[in-house]
C-alpha cells in the first residue's frame, strides 16, 4: 500500500466511525493499520510486548481481547481518549 492509499484508508476508517471529514483529517495519523484479523493483532501485540509465562499462555483469550478492542474503538461519541 502506498502512502496515499494508507492515508486514505485511515481517513475512511475514521469516517466510518462517525468522525467528520475535518476531524478525520486532523487525527488520521493516530490510526494504526494492521493487515489481518483483530485476533491476529491481539496475538501479535501481546507476544511482542509482554513476557507471558508458558503455563499461562493457554489461558489468554485472544478472541475476547479482539472483541473488547472492537467494541471500545475510539469514536467521536466516546468519552475516553
From TrEMBL:
Q: Which organism is it from?
A: Candidatus Endoriftia persephonae
Q: Name one Pfam family in it.
A: ArdA
- Protein name (record): Antirestriction protein ArdA
